Amino acid sequence: MLYILDYGAGNVASLANSVRSLGFDFKWVESVEDFDKADRILFPGVGAIRSALSSLREKGFAEPLKKYIASGRPYMGICIGMQVLFESSDESEVEPGLGVIPGKVGRFDSSDKTVPCMGWNGATALRELGEAKKTYGLDADSSYYFVHSYRVAFDEKMEDWALTLTKYGDETYVSSVQKGNVFATQFHPEKSGPAGLEVLKSWLTQGEKGQLVDTSVKPRREQADIDEELVRRGFTKRIVACLDVRTNDAGDLVVTKGDQYDVREAEESTTTETPIPSTNAADGPSSDSTVPKPKGRDVRNLGKPVDLARRYFAEGADEVAFLNITSFRSCPMHDQPMLDVVRQSAETVFVPLTIGGGIRDTTDPDGTSRSALEVAGTYFRCGADKVSIGSDAVFAVEDMLAAGGKKTGKTGIETISYAYGNQAVVVSFDPKRVYANSPEDVPAIHRPSVVDLASPLPGSSTPLKADLGPNGERYCWYQCTVRGGRETRDIDVVQLAQGVESLGAGEILLNSVDRDGSKAGFDLRLVALVKRSVSIPVVASSGAGKVEDFSEVFRETGVEAALAAGIFHRKEVPISDVKDHVQAEGIKIRVV
Ligand code: 1PR
């Protein structure tokens, strides 16, 4: 019997779904006795090693797990499930590792690259794999999904254990290990599409009729071949499909899409339905934009959330994001339809899923309070890999700035990233341009975020089309908004970006109210400004209209990922065309 070890953090639902989708049954490890009953153990660690190790010890699982591994029965670890095998980790000074593998887990150097490392990369075999070219289902031509800030650097001590190597920036690290009955990957097979499922299947079927394959005895490959492959494969940019989800006037949960955040049809509809007014006075106007709208305009309906997520997975999206865009209303967890959307999508969509909207402290109608951490945890257990925080992040940074930079440790960003790791916390920005004729017209505090709308990007000689304000203004700064663009706040994107990074966010999803739905291309000046303010990954969003927009934003700003909604929903630009174009431009991308 296969047992999966869930120590209580992160998204284990996806692994369970992928194992089931391959036709295997399993049980959860619930007691010390289960280690004796197990024929095979899968340990899908996610997030922070500190909580993984302390939870294993609190449950009394650490010694039984070591005994299980020493017994020679098959063990597969994923991400933290690989890192716990080592003697120690820089991430957790107080909790020693299990010591199954000699060596230490260290942190990526962030001086030359974004950390966490979040995205797709190859896995280059250290040893000759013979005719089959594949061991443990690992394919030299496939990409796998990695998300981590810590890694095991490759050196001669790791020769015995390293199965594959991967390169991120200048660092070559161990992306999977194998020796005897132990196999573990730094990447997430359950999030790596068909290529990842192949790895899981291979491990699940190995040893069923005899011995496990032991690659550690095979001869080593020529170093030059390994180096060539490490560079050729490399870290890829990501293409994200985004689904703005809300209930329409008929009460159906639909994917919608706005222009500058107005998600209603331009023309008054012929139906007699009227928009449902907000039931909560605190919600403000029940319209979907700051722009006044005539009555009777329907919410645009571009399809069902789960169907579209499945379509994008099949078409090769590297990630799928769901944003609950009516979360500005009260959104108690007890009847949150987005939970089902995530649950159902995670059953068949094996790439990372992000869920945003309403990730904050909430109160159910019966008075039950739920912390942002609890809300996020509920989504993770349903199959989300990351949560995206919008309005609450702005308030958190405002409070931190007002307190002279002091952190409380109690904000959603802090509590969620502490428990689940900062890779699990995205912050979604909804900035708007504020135009000015001169930088001096901008309040001094916001001048660091002023951009010149008539010049090339700083440090670039590539000409960039002037993009002046409506009255010919040459400058602008980017003001943050909350509640889906309804309310502006006295904070700019640079303050927000640096604030959320210091609170522990692992990624920024950078929308633009001005460009949303415009198909005019990403706001390169905005994207470049935020990208150079932080060292965490940035996802450029809003305005994609053609394949060239993607290569341009990658080339000109260096962002890690680019997101689009409208052009994918309306099938105007297929994801495969975007990827073919980006690849033809010499930019690394995962091609399915
Ligand atoms: O504040 O934590 O509850 O989160 C609310 C979330 O909902 C935020 O992430 C916010 O961005 C999002 N949101 C709220 N209202 C809207 C709206 O459109 N009326 N959607 C909204 C944000 C922007 C992107 C869109 C890109 C790409 N929409 O999601 O997908 O602009 O579109 P394009 O490629 O078609 O140009 P909280």
UniProtKB/TrEMBL annotation:
Its EC number is 3.5.1.2. Substrate binds at residues 358, 511. GO terms for molecular function: glutaminase activity; imidazoleglycerol-phosphate synthase activity; lyase activity. IGPS catalyzes the conversion of PRFAR and glutamine to IGP, AICAR and glutamate. The glutaminase domain produces the ammonia necessary for the cyclase domain to produce IGP and AICAR from PRFAR. The ammonia is channeled to the active site of the cyclase domain. Residues 4-202 form the Glutamine amidotransferase domain. Pathway: Amino-acid biosynthesis; L-histidine biosynthesis; L-histidine from 5-phospho-alpha-D-ribose 1-diphosphate: step 5/9. It comes from the Eukaryota. Residues 275-290 have a biased composition (Polar residues). One of its GO terms (biological process) is L-histidine biosynthetic process. In the C-terminal section; belongs to the HisA/HisF family. Belongs to the HisA/HisF family. It comes from Leucosporidium creatinivorum. The keyword Amino-acid biosynthesis applies. Residues 390-391, 428-430, 516-517, 542-543, 565-566 are annotated as: PRFAR binding. Keywords: Amino-acid biosynthesis, Glutamine amidotransferase, Histidine biosynthesis, Hydrolase, Lyase, Multifunctional enzyme. Residues 261-301 are annotated as: Disordered. Pfam families: GATase (PF00117), His_biosynth (PF00977). This is Imidazole glycerol phosphate synthase hisHF.
